[in-house]
From TrEMBL:
<feature type="transmembrane region" description="Helical">
    <location>
        <begin position="230"/>
        <end position="248"/>
    </location>
</feature>
<dbReference type="Pfam" id="PF01925">
    <property type="entry name" value="TauE"/>
</dbReference>
<feature type="transmembrane region" description="Helical">
    <location>
        <begin position="188"/>
        <end position="210"/>
    </location>
</feature>
<dbReference type="InterPro" id="IPR052017">
    <property type="entry name" value="TSUP"/>
</dbReference>
<feature type="transmembrane region" description="Helical">
    <location>
        <begin position="78"/>
        <end position="96"/>
    </location>
</feature>
<dbReference type="GO" id="GO:0005886">
    <property type="term" value="C:plasma membrane"/>
</dbReference>
<feature type="transmembrane region" description="Helical">
    <location>
        <begin position="102"/>
        <end position="120"/>
    </location>
</feature>
<feature type="transmembrane region" description="Helical">
    <location>
        <begin position="7"/>
        <end position="33"/>
    </location>
</feature>
<keyword id="KW-0812">Transmembrane</keyword>
<keyword id="KW-1003">Cell membrane</keyword>
<feature type="transmembrane region" description="Helical">
    <location>
        <begin position="132"/>
        <end position="151"/>
    </location>
</feature>
<dbReference type="InterPro" id="IPR002781">
    <property type="entry name" value="TM_pro_TauE-like"/>
</dbReference>
<keyword id="KW-0813">Transport</keyword>
<feature type="transmembrane region" description="Helical">
    <location>
        <begin position="45"/>
        <end position="66"/>
    </location>
</feature>
<comment type="similarity">
    <text>Belongs to the 4-toluene sulfonate uptake permease (TSUP) (TC 2.A.102) family.</text>
</comment>
<protein>
    <recommendedName>
        <fullName>Probable membrane transporter protein</fullName>
    </recommendedName>
</protein>
<keyword id="KW-1133">Transmembrane helix</keyword>
């Protein structure tokens, strides 16, 4: 399928904006996937292409956080491994089973995250007591985080950040950094499986990936410089917007 230069330019801008937002608060997929579908790309190809562009943005943000020593790979390698395996399983299953029931539950889950951050204004301001070790978190939580991203995806960054804040005791900036590295890992696993299945439109994916890399890098810098003053409001706003978008797609507002 061929796309015109004008469509590719629009997709580039969409990817830039989505990656900027995603690096800070998550939810970028709710912007990029509809944009891809509106070009007439088949749904499976849209999902695969989205993973390609999202992987670029997640890599850009992750690399920035690693350079700033916000994430120590030696500490979290097992968590990332479990995220990878969970995402691979989720990507396989989404191509085999009906996800409609899960989609109906999702708006409530994302809304809960937004309300949780809104109603606990001090949560994530500073590091807190760690409730789970990295190994236990890897075994008990990471596979489900990866599975969710591979199986569906929207709001993954917000869910991962919340898990890091509440269970690992990270402040919100540190949690966002770790969430982005986990998100890159899950995107990479999912991308590999879509690649094997031939479900990627390369020209669109590469153009969007460039925009995604630039947007994510800018967003990552904002996380490190603005921290909690920027992240918390954006997580809350994006959670509510994601809830509204998914509810609208499911016809909740139909008369």
């Amino acid at each position: 399928m061929e796309l015109g230069v004008d469509i590719l330019a629009i997709l580039f801008v969409v990817a830039f904006v989505a990656a900027f937002i995603d690096a800070i608060a998550g939810g970028g997929g709710l912007i990029t996937i509809p944009a891809l579908l509106m070009t007439g790309i088949p749904p499976a190809v849209a999902l695969g292409t989205n993973k390609l562009q999202a992987m670029g943005g997640a890599f850009s943000a992750s690399l920035y956080f690693l350079r700033k020593r916000a994430v120590n790979l030696r500490e979290v390698w097992f968590i990332l491994l479990c995220v990878f395996l969970g995402s691979a399983l989720g990507t396989i299953l989404i191509q085999l089973i009906d996800s409609s029931v899960f989609k109906k539950i999702l708006p409530f889950l994302i809304l809960t995250i937004g309300l949780y951050f809104l109603c606990t204004p001090k949560l994530g301001d500073e590091d807190r007591k760690q409730r789970l070790t990295y190994v236990v978190f890897g075994f008990a939580i990471s596979p489900f985080l990866g599975f969710y991203d591979g199986f569906f995806g929207p709001g993954t960054g917000s869910i991962m950040s919340l898990a890091c804040v509440t269970l690992l005791g990270f402040n919100i900036a540190k949690a966002t950094a770790h969430a982005k590295v986990m998100n890159f890992t899950s995107n990479f696993a999912s991308f590999l499986l879509f690649l094997v299945g031939g479900q990627i439109l390369w020209i669109a994916g590469i153009v969007m990936m460039v925009g995604s890399i630039l947007g994510a890098n800018l967003g990552a810098k904002m996380v490190m410089t603005k921290g909690k003053t920027l992240i918390r409001p954006m997580v809350v706003v994006m959670s509510f917007l994601m809830t509204a978008k998914m509810a609208y797609d499911q016809g909740w507002f139909s008369i």
